[in-house]
Amino acid sequence: MIEMKNVSKTYMIGDTEVKALDQIHFQIGKGEFVAIVGPSGSGKSTLMNMLGCLDVPDEGEYFLDGIDINNSSDNDLAQIRNTKIGFVFQNFNLLSKLNALENVEVPMMYKGVSAGESKRLASAYLERVGLQDRGKHTPKELSGGQQQRVAIARALSCEPQIILADEPTGALDQKTGREIICLLKELNAQGQTIILITHDNNIAQQANRQICIIDGQISEEPRL
Ligand code: ADP
Ligand code: MG
């Protein structure tokens, strides 16, 4: 599903080069639940941007579902982001004026799903994350954990090949964070490929495999 070959990324800050990713090399198969784990500043978000086709490598190659990302146009990349990847962020990134159901409908509206159908599907996705009775609530009427569930339902509504979750428990207390990880595990058991990005080792251990990144390099890749 995912193949990164010797991917590097350097940022320039004035005259100073910061090598955020240095020869990153790994593969992730369909149906896996993988954690990318490393301390703050190790390059996780830079890697997430690559994986999510929000940025392209300076060096190396990235194949997603057989597509050569380095040789894709901006239009193609936008299309890939919208159809293949479901993003989940630390701060949920819900639209505050829309209720939970409407938030889940947004990606489907972009895909041209009819209004009636997107309502029906959005209800089903909310049910999958245990929020069938919260559709009419706006984000500020929901707890943090519930908001993250809505964000996960929204990610699912793209029928993504991969869910990319960047620190999805970072804004939650421990118990709620564990519940969100349980939900991700459940979705993975149903076949969803998930990449979880975290600085927290305990959370990373919940995934089936860990890819550790330190100073932009993969330091080890233990299998449990
Ligand atoms: P993490 O998500 O693991 O905390 P990042 O990928 O955000 O790490 O950052 C990796 C390194 O790249 C850090 O040294 C950071 O300062 C640097 N960096 C990240 N984004 C930029 C940017 N847009 N411009 C310059 N340097 C950046
Ligand atoms: Mg980060």
UniProtKB/TrEMBL annotation:
Residues 2-224 form the ABC transporter domain. Keywords: ATP-binding, Nucleotide-binding, Transport. Pfam families: ABC_tran. The keyword Transport applies. CDD domains: ABC_MJ0796_LolCDE_FtsE. Gene3D superfamilies: P-loop containing nucleotide triphosphate hydrolases (3.40.50.300). PROSITE patterns: ABC_TRANSPORTER_1, ABC_TRANSPORTER_2. One of its GO terms (cellular component) is plasma membrane. One of its GO terms (molecular function) is ATP hydrolysis activity. The keyword Zinc does not apply. InterPro entries: AAA+_ATPase, ABC_transporter-like_ATP-bd, ABC_transporter-like_CS, ABC_transpr_LolD-like, MacB-like_ATP-bd, P-loop_NTPase. PANTHER family: ABC TRANSPORTER DOMAIN-CONTAINING PROTEIN, IMPORT ATP-BINDING PROTEIN. This is Putative ABC transport system ATP-binding protein.
